[in-house]
Design a protein that fits this description.
- The protein has 334 residues and is of the alpha/beta class.
- The chain is built from nine helices and 14 strands.
- It has two domains: 135 residues, Rossmann fold; 185 residues, Dihydrodipicolinate Reductase, domain 2 (2-Layer Sandwich).
- Helix 2 links the parallel strand 6 and strand 7.
- The longest helix has 17 residues.
- The N and C termini lie close together (9 Å).
C-alpha cells in the first residue's frame, strides 16, 4: 500500500460516509486524493475535505480505477455487488456493512483487539457491527485478564444507527408531542419519541433478532474465541447519537472490581468513568462525537460466580463505524 493512497468513499453522502471524511481529516490520514461516490441522485453534491468541496460522483462499475482503498457504507447489497469490482480494480475494501463479516476469507477487525488480522486480507476487510464493537472495547481487555465465558447484555441504541430519516422522525415526534399533535411514524413500527422499542433488525425463528446474534457471532471471530456466548436484547431508545450497553459477563477466573478497573484504565480507546459517589458514569450525551468509548458502573454480579457487571457507551458512528474503518485503513499503510 502506498503512503498517500487514493481513497474512495462509497455512500459518501450518508451519515457514516460523512464521518469517514471527517475522521480522515482529523487524524491526518495521508490520502493523496479523495473520491466520494454515491447514487445518481447525489451527483452535484460535494463533500467537504481539507478545506475543499470535492464533487460527489455516481457509483458505477468503472468508479474504482486508480483507487487504493475503498471505504464502503452504503448497505450490504451495494457492498456485495461493488466490493468485488473494487478489489478486481486493485483496491482494498474496508466494508462497514454486514455483507462479509462472517465470511471465513474476510478479516473482521477492531484494531485495538486484532489488528494483526488485517495482514490476512484477500482484498476485503470487514468492520464489525456497531454495538459489538463498543461492547468489545471494554470486554476484550477483561477477557485477556480473566477469560470471558459468556455475557448477558441489553443495548440502548440511538436512532442515528438507523440513519438520517430516523433522526428526523424522532425530532418530528418530539415537536408533535410538545404541540399535542398525534405522533406520526414511518421508519419504526411505533413512535420512538418518549418510548423504547425492544426491536432492532429483523426477527429470527429463535425469537432473537439478527442484531442480537451479531454480538455472539462477531465477538467469537474478533476475539478468536469460538466458545464465547452472548444472550442479548437490543433496544432502540429516543437518543440521537451514541449507543449504550448494560453487560453482565461471566469469566473463567475470579474477578475483582479493583483489578477490573486497573485493566480498563489502561485499555486503548477506552475511558474509565466510574465514580458512583460523584454520579460519574458513561452517558451517550457525553460519548457522542468522541473517539473513545467509556465504561463504568463496575460491580461484582450478585447472581453469577466470577461475574462482573458494567455499562459501556460509545459513538456508533465513530468507533462503531467510521473511526474503526479509518483505523483499519491506517493499519493498511503502516
Amino acid at each position: 500500500m502506498k503512503k498517500n493512497p487514493t481513497v474512495a468513499i462509497v455512500g459518501a453522502t450518508g451519515a457514516v460516509g460523512v464521518e469517514f471524511a471527517g475522521c480522515m481529516e482529523r487524524r491526518n490520514f495521508p490520502a493523496g486524493k479523495l473520491v466520494p461516490l454515491a447514487s445518481a441522485r447525489s451527483v452535484g453534491k460535494t463533500m467537504a475535505f481539507r478545506g475543499a468541496n470535492v464533487p460527489v460522483q455516481e457509483l458505477t462499475e468503472s468508479s474504482f480505477a486508480g483507487v487504493d482503498i475503498a471505504m464502503f457504507s452504503a448497505g450490504a447489497s451495494i457492498s456485495r455487488k461493488f466490493a468485488p469490482i473494487a478489489v478486481k480494480a486493485g483496491a482494498v475494501v474496508v466494508d462497514n456493512s454486514s455483507a462479509f463479516r462472517m465470511d471465513r476469507e474476510v478479516p473482521l477487525v477492531v484494531p485495538e483487539i486484532n489488528a494483526a488480522d488485517v495482514r490476512g486480507h484477500h482484498g476485503i476487510i470487514a468492520n464489525p457491527n456497531c454495538t459489538t464493537a463498543i461492547v468489545l472495547m471494554a470486554l476484550y481487555p477483561l477477557h485477556r485478564k480473566f477469560g470471558v465465558k459468556r455475557i448477558f447484555a441489553s443495548s440502548y441504541q440511538a436512532v442515528s444507527g438507523t440513519g438520517a430519516k430516523a433522526i428526523e422522525e424522532l425530532r418530528r415526534q418530539v415537536d408533535q408531542s410538545v404541540h399535542g399533535e398525534p405522533l406520526t411514524h414511518e421508519v419504526y413500527p411505533y413512535p420512538i419519541a418518549f418510548n423504547v422499542l425492544p426491536h432492532v433488525d429483523s426477527f429470527l425463528p429463535t425469537g432473537y433478532t439478527k442484531e442480537e446474534m451479531k454480538m455472539e457471532n462477531e465477538g467469537r471471530k474478533i476475539m478468536h474465541h469460538p466458545g464465547f456466548r452472548a444472550s442479548v436484547t437490543c433496544v432502540r431508545v429516543p437518543v440521537y447519537r451514541a449507543h449504550s450497553i448494560a453487560v453482565t459477563a461471566e469469566f473463567e477466573q475470579p474477578v475483582s472490581v479493583s483489578t477490573a478497573r486497573e485493566v480498563l484504565s489502561h485499555a486503548p480507546g477506552l475511558d474509565l468513568v466510574d465514580d458512583p459517589t460523584k454520579n460519574q458514569y458513561p452517558m451517550p450525551l457525553f460519548t457522542a462525537d468522541h473517539y473513545n468509548c467509556a465504561v463504568g458502573r463496575l460491580r461484582l454480579d450478585c447472581a453469577l460466580d466470577n461475574g462482573l457487571c458494567f455499562w459501556v457507551s460509545g459513538d456508533q458512528l465513530l468507533k462503531g463505524a467510521a473511526l474503526n474503518a479509518v483505523q483499519i485503513a491506517e493499519e493498511l499503510i503502516k
